Amino acid sequence: MQKVSHTFAPIVSPHSKILILGTFPSVASRAEQFYYGHPQNRFYKVIAALTCKPYPQSIDEKITLLHESGIALWDVIESCLIENSSDASIKEAKANDIEMLLHQAPIERIFANGTKAYQLYMKLSYPLTKHPIIALPSTSPANAACSLECLIEKWRIILSK
């Protein structure tokens, strides 16, 4: 177990209407200093497919995709004890200030990238924000039960009004 803090800022613009929350950056994401850095994570493939945009290669392209799509991105947890990238191992979690983020943009809906992000938001953040959240299947490669096509279908809800 290692005590780790979140070291990179949320992705948000004045036009963000959707907030997607993960749990905490993986080892690969922490090394890259950006969200969903594991090469097998399907997050950007899903967002690109849903928005009919090209798959982003660079961090700048990923930020542009998110901004153009009205999507803000952050994690529920600011710091915790964690073993490698295992969400199941998370202990002593301290929440990010999601309420502050909700004041930076006209966020209408919040989605959790995975059940653990949903559970942590409900426990740590919902009592402060009172903003509902919808759980979506995780885009993590650990979620092998859901194919890319399954993820795209389940995540389609983020674009509906």
Structure description:
This protein is α/β, with parallel strands linked by helices and 161 residues long. The chain has a single domain, classed as Uracil-DNA glycosylase-like domain (Uracil-DNA Glycosylase, subunit E, 3-Layer(aba) Sandwich). 33% of the residues lie in helices and 21% in strands. It contains 6 helices and 7 strands, in the order E-E-H-H-H-E-E-E-H-E-H-E-H. The strands form 2 sheets. A 4-stranded parallel β-sheet has the order 3-2-6-7. Helix 5 links the parallel strand 6 and strand 7. It is globular, with a radius of gyration of 14 Å.
Strand order in the largest sheet: 3-2-6-7
Average pLDDT confidence is 94
Please give the count of helices: 6
Order of helices and strands: EEHHHEEEHEHEH
What name goes with the CATH superfamily? Uracil-DNA glycosylase-like domain
Whole-number tally of structural domains: 1
| CA(first)-CA(last) distance | 41 Å
Second CATH tier, the architecture: 3-Layer(aba) Sandwich
- What would you call the shape? globular
Radius of gyration: 14 Å
Please report which band the strand proportion falls in: under 5%, 5-15%, 15-25%, 25-35%, 35-45% or over 45%: 15-25%
| CATH-derived topology | Uracil-DNA Glycosylase, subunit E
Largest sheet: 4 strands, parallel
| Portion of residues within helices | 25-40%
Give me the count of strands. 7
Instruction: Say what oligomer this is.
Output: single chain
Uncertain ranges: none
Structural class: alpha/beta
